[in-house]
Amino acid sequence: MGRMRENPRYNVISMRVSDEERDHLENLMKTTHKSISDIMREAMEYFSAHYEQDELVKKAA
Prior knowledge:
mainly alpha
């Protein structure tokens, strides 16, 4: 039986990427020592933070 996790993740999302994009992800994995899943989670957090910031700027204008 697998180990119990505090915050299990049950949802799987897949996406298609070009060879160039895959190479870029593999380079990120090597330099950061993180999994693709961790890199994509961080990318979502980064995008969300900047998207919200951009939306606030648009509303203020």
